[in-house]
Amino acid sequence: MKYYGTYRLVKSEDLNHHGTLFAGRMSEWFVESCFITVAKEYKHPENLVCRKVHEINFNEPIRKGNIINIESKIVYTGKTSLTVYGKVTKGDSDKVIVDGFLTFVCVDEHGVKMPHNLKMDEPSTEEDIRLLNIAKSFRK
Amino acid sequence: MKYYGTYRLVKSEDLNHHGTLFAGRMSEWFVESCFITVAKEYKHPENLVCRKVHEINFNEPIRKGNIINIESKIVYTGKTSLTVYGKVTKGDSDKVIVDGFLTFVCVDEHGVKMPHNLKMDEPSTEEDIRLLNIAKSFRK
Amino acid sequence: MKYYGTYRLVKSEDLNHHGTLFAGRMSEWFVESCFITVAKEYKHPENLVCRKVHEINFNEPIRKGNIINIESKIVYTGKTSLTVYGKVTKGDSDKVIVDGFLTFVCVDEHGVKMPHNLKMDEPSTEEDIRLLNIAKSFRK
Amino acid sequence: MKYYGTYRLVKSEDLNHHGTLFAGRMSEWFVESCFITVAKEYKHPENLVCRKVHEINFNEPIRKGNIINIESKIVYTGKTSLTVYGKVTKGDSDKVIVDGFLTFVCVDEHGVKMPHNLKMDEPSTEEDIRLLNIAKSFRK
Amino acid sequence: MKYYGTYRLVKSEDLNHHGTLFAGRMSEWFVESCFITVAKEYKHPENLVCRKVHEINFNEPIRKGNIINIESKIVYTGKTSLTVYGKVTKGDSDKVIVDGFLTFVCVDEHGVKMPHNLKMDEPSTEEDIRLLNIAKSFRK
Amino acid sequence: MKYYGTYRLVKSEDLNHHGTLFAGRMSEWFVESCFITVAKEYKHPENLVCRKVHEINFNEPIRKGNIINIESKIVYTGKTSLTVYGKVTKGDSDKVIVDGFLTFVCVDEHGVKMPHNLKMDEPSTEEDIRLLNIAKSFRK
């Protein structure tokens, strides 16, 4: 699996009263980015529903005019479910300022769960192993 | 602590392509509702920032025209932090269709953490004890 | 009949160029809150349409970061119509900073008016009698 | 005084769950149109605040894809206040499908009322006399 | 053909991080205004699709609280296409601060191009001749 | 220079009355994507303003639920200006369904043009030469 990225420009309409990116708006973009990732991999967005946000960490404020990059990738596959890790960086920095995990399930037109048949390669990097283990711990 | 409630009407602009309430939009309303709750209790919204979404569970689809009630209350207080439990019901039903936990921290004008000085009563109901324990497990 | 309440947080996207809550945005939230109230009482939102705003008074500016509570209740029932009184308070204050009256009619799937069959108790408090009389004066 | 007009296209994001233009959205556009009119006449929008919606009548449903024309003009001037009449037509029809009256007050930078010094000609048409009388009746 | 005009009030939610009207938002309003114009002339919006923006010039910044007037008219008709010229003025000034050209095509319910049968008068003013020539140069 | 990409999910709120992506909304996303690209390369978004949309071609309808990828890159640098080429693809297809060119200028805090000092490599691929030539033709 690979990362799919989306750039977002923080505009006036996205701010809270502190003048920073409203956590609710960041959550909306985060969920949308993770959905895009599973849809790009599974190819049938109409069969994917978001079941759970496992966590989202807001590590730093994000200000008006900042350009953020929201990248996400599938890190764990169950038979009918897909768990996604997402992270956000700002400007030229690699520092992860927001990250989290979501799980989607694959359903048929009646809303009944069905297998997605996606296969993941074994994780090869330390980072991927770390992410897989965190995803598994959520899934117990 | 008590529940603060917000009603929301699901409109066309809130839908995903399935024709159900987009999980990203529900997350935005959920975060906003929890923020309102801590602001109502702490009285100084300018000192509150959202630090973490611990989880949000989406148990059922929500459709256009549904009226949902998003209720949240503080269930755990640390020295500088406040953890909120939120739940969503639909129409006349008591069934919890979305729920989750968020943590906010109290900060001064420089963004440095500071004590909020809010005190919670000891939980008295089974439900409140259950919620407190879940909140504590997130906080470890 | 009872009050149904909705909290709203005033964010940057809701402001006019004065930096206060844009009256058009307040009107939109006000109408939506009143609609939610009639839908909660009548239970079939698909049969309710807004026929008239009788008045909305804007008594005070509302600023970014304010948390307002929009409460509304049915104060008068005709055979096919329902008149709602709504009021807005801010923060911890009881002062009514915006209020007004709206009328909805109950229609069938062809848009033809039909009886809603909702019954109101006789108003018991001074406030309820006052509101009923104002509603009646609009309805002549 | 003359009418200032604004065309609006009703899009998916403006609909209620009936598939018609949401009354709250229409109210928001209506208030904005009336504000534009007083700002065009008074030339200093920063001194104008909306004080009261006297009424808005919703006579007909408006559907997705409809192009509506919202026209408004000042029909009554007090010393510090301006009352506006607004009407909405659809497509090529002259039928007034929404109309209403709003009052704005002129305030200084401290929010204190001040004279606007706008003068209206005496109404010459039957329509203008009718509108002036309705505006006066609201202003008692 | 004549100009159809739409007033817009620039609000906080329309700003970029410079505090001026975000060019993307201006583009959205510009396209919508041109669409309204072709729909008012052709009368069947369901048959019109936007094929091309030929150019949009942003000559001056537009600030919060400004009231702009977006006027557009058809300046060239092909057999199945319509080219529109749009211009934006601000406050009381006649200075054109944004302008541009768009082309729409008339299609049937299968998306196949079809004649619109609209006829334009020969341009009579210098301005109209100038606009027609520019439109023709785009259409080569 | 390289392409910067942004994925977008087309939701109900983005549709026109045909049920396809509203050209105005696509224009807004297109301008925002091009802005992000110049900001990522120049690193000081506060000094960049959009001066002109040279053209945007809408080649195919885009539907609700489609995931589009908007990619853009700088293809021509003047002393104070930057011209960007943007293209949109859908799902797994490489077919360019929307494309166009925009020019931004670099300005100081008073809005006066200033050199950006960005250097482009000589175009090496056929595609890049083609894009450079189109950009130059716009710039005459």
TrEMBL record, chains A, B, C, D, E, F:
Keyword vocabulary terms for this entry: Hydrolase
Domain HotDog ACOT-type: 1-110
Annotated SUPFAM superfamilies: Thioesterase/thiol ester dehydrase-isomerase
Keyword Secreted appears in the UniProt entry: no
UniProt feature coiled coil, ranges: none
CDD domains attached to this UniProt entry: BFIT_BACH
GO MF, one example: long-chain fatty acyl-CoA hydrolase activity
Signal sequence region: none
GO terms for cellular component: cytosol
Hydrolase keyword on record: yes
InterPro entries the record matches: Cytosol_ACT, HOTDOG_ACOT, HotDog_dom_sf, Thioestr_dom
One record GO biological process: fatty acid catabolic process
Family: Belongs to the acyl coenzyme A hydrolase family.
PANTHER family referenced in this protein's UniProt entry, alphabetically: ACYL COENZYME A THIOESTER HYDROLASE, HOTDOG ACOT-TYPE DOMAIN-CONTAINING PROTEIN
Protein's UniProt name: Acyl-CoA thioesterase
